[in-house]
Amino acid sequence: MAIFEWRKFNFFDLKSNVDGGSVARTLQDAEITCATNGSNQVYLCDSSGCVHIFGRSWSATSFKAHEGAVILCKYSRQNNLLITVGTDDNGPVPDCKIWSFTGKQTKEGHPTCVRTMKTALQKPTALGVSDGGQYMAIGFDRGSISLYRGDIARDRSKAMKTLSGGTTAITGIAFKMISKIAQMYVCSDSGVIMYNLHSRDKEIKIVLDAMPKPIRCCVLQSGQNVGDGHFMVGKDDAVYCYTSEDRASCYALDGQKSILQWFRTNLLTVSSPGKSSISMQKDSILTVIDIQNKFIVFSTPIDAVAAIIVEFGTCYVITCTKEVFHLDEKDLQSKLNLLFKKNLYDIAVRIAKSSQYDSEGLAEIFRQYGDHLYSKGDFPGAVEQYQRTIGFLEPSYVIRKFLDSRHISCLTDYLQHLHKMCHATADHTTLLLNCFTRLDQTTNLKDFLSNDANPDLIFDLDVAIKVCRTASVEHALALAKRNAKHDFVISILTEDMGSFGDALEYIGALSFDDADCSLKKYGYILMERCPVEMTALLKKLCTDYTEKRGANGLIDTSWHIDRGSPEDFIHLFGQDTRNLVEFLEHLVTNVSNCSCLVFNTLIECYLSMWPKDTAAEKRILDILQNYQGSYDRNHIAILCRTHKFWPGVMFIYEEEHLYHLIVRHHLKNRDYNRLLDTCRRLGTLQPQLWLQALTGLRSDKTAPANLLSQILNVIAQEKLQSPLQVLNCLAVEKGPNLSSVREYFLQVFQKETDSFRQEDQLVEKYRKDAVALKKHIKSLQEDPIEFRGTICNNCHQPLSIPAIYFLCQHSYHHDCVKGYSENDKDCPACHTKNMQILDSLRQQSESRGKHDAFHNLLDRSPEPFSVVAEYFGRGLFNKIVIVEENTNTESIKPTSGVAAKLPDARIKAPRPISSQNTIAEARLRVQEVQSSKVDIPVAEGRMRAQERRRNNVYSSSLEANLTWRKDPNAKTPPVGSPRRTAVNAISKNLAIQPKNPFDDDAQYDESKNPFADDDDLSVGREASTNPFDDYDSNLNPFD
Question: Which is a Pfam family this sequence falls into (predicted)?
Fold first, then answer.
């Protein structure tokens, strides 16, 4: 390809004199022989043997490297080493010197020479150094190559090895590292060869090009991935590229190339002008080629170039006339604007991509390119460019351009690509399907819906199905089934095709969640059209549901059992009671934990069938009896009452213990047999049922004659009411005649008469016993006692002195009593009986404090008055002092807390009192005789009343003392302070010695003595003589 056939653009600017003449002033008359760069510095070597170092500001630092001219130079970046080859005065053999910029420097600040080597006796023509500094090679004019291994900065490196590079002068040497193997490329007029340098002094030579052609320059392509860089050689007809195996592509460019350099992605060449070139005034032509896009981005005539330096992030061209030019690349936007003006959008896209332009910027280029093609009438090409803008350009911008009927095919292509890129909306899907329909592209429509040809194609399935339902129901159904759109499938089968059976079959093959959701949505219409099949499917769904098939069409053995909620489907049956009952019975039979609603609904269905189906009654009762707790009793009771199903109502009443409602129902319906049976069966649990039955039958004239008498007999036997209460109950208007209850009252009166007779006999007996006991006590007190016992009641031997005689007419030897009992004051024969009596008295005194037990017994007793009478008869309301005799001292045990607080001087033996309990009195008399005389204590209530009237007497009650005796001078302590006043009052009151109110010197009011004669009491009649003054009124059972 000739140079004029390349596309040319001006993407660079060449700026001159960027160094301000610093290079010319520094070199003066010397000529530039070679140049290199690295570490942000530019190294220029001249013919006088000096090396000039320039920084970014082009300020120079120079030092003398050789006596003669510097022929070659190279810079090793990693080691900061400068290698120069030049001649010195010591002979014709050139020297190779290594200069270090990191070690110790000279006094002038110049780098030090760390190594000097003699080269071969030939003219050096090429120099190459690897990036790591491990390899260095010098090429000579006769084709030989001197290869140095190891650290080139040290003299102890390995010896030099000479390689052959051909018969002509070596033009260039370049190193490229691939993994651990170094590749050395060598070019000369004889051809291009490559050496694979291994670590063990082994080189493998590979001839890449043996065609002899003049080669004046070469460069190793940079900026590419490791191993991809080509070794580029400049020949007169073209620039050839070589890989490690063979020759690669070439770039046709006429002219003798003197310099090749690589800058970013561009190849810079300096060549002599050809014959057809119009710029003959200059010695060379500088050309910049964009290798990637394959066009010339800059070309200009220039003076002879000494070197091209790529440093400081840019490119500099140094001519032999010591001028420095800056090759400045234009920014990307300027390049693109230049291409847009020429409508070269394809090139603009390539340049933008190669420059890593962002996607949004590329989309804008594609949009302009598409607009350009659209304006030219190239609609397919425009659509192709618009497709590349998807995701950045609004689709409506493109759609508006192709809405004309002539461009439907282009619009279809764009919409298809829009769906493929997953940027389509529901409207776009609708439009595309309409385009397919309009163009009658049935095949394309099927392919689009099947998505087999383009598996990555994604579109709005819902919209696609809706559009297809208007055009082709079969396509819509197939699309819905293929994409598992179960809702659309069932909707199409039921609404569009009317295939309700197929819809049920399709639902039965779905997963549990999908089937459950579908039946909830389409259950009404499916139950209306296919009730039997729908009921069967619901049975399976709510018991043990499994999918019919797996994903591969085979039976899935790893299924999981799920159960639906029957409450969600009961309403679907509506008035179809028969199928609903079948469904619910199946649930009750196969599901152990059915909900309350299932049982309630099933019972309700049975109740609706009960008037016509006699077997329904048995089913209802079976459910009520066998599934208690599974249904709502209140709800079922209401349903049973609504449907007048009285057996169910009676059962629930009985389970809820509402027995009175059962009796009320039988009374209302005058079902006397069931009434009597209910009272007999439940009367033991609730005896008031008999009274309720009596109250309900008292005004019923139709009741059997013997029914009332049977109820009254039970009431009398169980003592549910007194005869007077029964009489008051029956004494109502329109009540029963006396003849119907005559037998009951006669029996009651007879029982009462017998009871009174027995009680009179007992009273007479107790009276006689009391009189006899009193006489006996009196005789014991007044009359002499004759002991006639001559035989010991223990050993039944004749008595001998000493002997012990007891008042009970038992006599014992003194030794017999000691051997039988430790206490000789107790009769061994009567000891057990006496202890029983004392234990009984203690129990009575202890039970006196158990007020809760007394009140509970009083509440539970049908005759509370008899309980109170029994307590009075047993003397439980009296304060009794039990006097016991000990062997040495007399022990007095009061039975109440009040008596325990009295002083010992006030506790005396009980005197005979005129109490109704003569037996207790007799016992006290016997104890009085056996023990020392002890006075009966005065009632605590009376003592408290007396003490309240006397301010100088100390009360036995600490609480009373604190309440009654207040210190008038006491001050109320402040809030939160300790109440020391109360404590002091207590201690003072406790220190007062108690006084006996019955002492002779005490001024006792005889009018308050309850044991005084009637004449003595006439004076103080107004005083209280009630023995129950000290009884707690809160415990009075009659309040």
Answer: VPS11_C
The DSSP result for 261-322, as a single string, is EEETTEEEEEE---TT-S--SSSEEEEEEETTTTEEEEEEEESPEEEEEEETTEEEEEETTS
Instruction: Give the length of the chain.
Output: 1039
Paired tokens of 453: 């040809």
State which amino acid sits at residue 990.
Answer: L
CA distance 817 to 759: 43
Query: d(Cα 774, Cα 778) in Å, to the nearest integer?
Result: 6
CATH code of the domain made up of 1-30+255-330: 2.40.10.480
CB 898 within 8 A of CB 938: no
Least Cα distance to 577 among 595, 599, 604, 597 occurs for 604
497 vs 491: CA distance, rounded Å: 9
Instruction: Report whether 1039 contacts 952 (CB < 8 A).
Output: no
**Cα separation, 718 vs 532, whole angstroms:** 61
From 836, 835, 932, 945, select the one nearest 890 (Cα to Cα). 932
pLDDT of residue 896: 37
Neighbours of 98 (CB within 10 A): 25
Alpha-carbon gap, residue 433 to 467, rounded angstroms = 7
Token code pair at residue 943: 């003592």
Residue 635 is predicted with a pLDDT of 92
What was the pLDDT predicted at 771? 92
pLDDT one-digit tens code per residue, 965-1017 = 334 444 444 433 333 333 343 333 434 444 555 544 445 555 555 555 544 44
Q: What per-residue confidence (pLDDT) applies to 433?
A: 80
Q: Kindly report the pTM of this predicted structure.
A: 0.49
The single residue listed with the structure tokens 């209802």 is: 620
User: Contact 811/793 with Cβ under 8 angstroms?
Assistant: yes
How far, in Å, CA of 316 to CA of 324, rounded? 7
Report whether 726 contacts 743 (CB < 8 A). Answer: no
Residue 308 near residue 259 (C-beta atoms within 8 A): yes
Amino acid identity of 687?
A: P
In angstroms, the CA 893 to CA 480 distance is: 102
The per-residue DSSP string of 308-328 comes to: EEEETTEEEEEETTS-EEEEE
Distance of CA 553 to the CA centre of its chain: 37
Q: Which of 65, 153, 75 is nearest to 114 (CA)?
A: 153
Written as six digits, the tokens of 926 are: 């016997």
Of the chain, the percentage scoring pLDDT greater than 90 comes to 24
Q: Residue 976: CB partners within 8 Å, gap ≥ 6?
A: none
| 776 CB burial (10 A radius; 0-12, 13-18, 19+) | middle
Question: What are the angstrom distances between the C-alpha of 450 and each of 237, 428, 622, 835?
Answer: 57, 18, 58, 110
pLDDT at 1023: 44
The parts of the chain modelled with pLDDT lower than 50 are 1-4, 225-227, 452-453, 549-559, 885-926, 928-938, 950-994, 999-1002, 1014-1025
What pLDDT sits at residue 394?
92
Q: What is the CATH number of domain 331-424?
A: 1.25.40
- Tokens at 604, concatenated: 């309700």
d(CA 914, CA 895): 20
Categorise residue 858: left if φ over 0, alpha if ψ from -120 to 50, beta otherwise: alpha
> CA dist 1037 to 456, 858, 867, 870, 930, Å?
96, 8, 10, 13, 38
Residues with Cβ within 8 Å of residue 213, at least 6 apart in sequence: 189, 235, 236
Measured distance CA(345)–CA(336) in Å, rounded: 8
* CB 564, CB 541: distance < 8 Å: yes
Write the burial class of residue 884 (CB in 10 Å: 0-12 exposed, 13-18 middle, 19+ buried): exposed
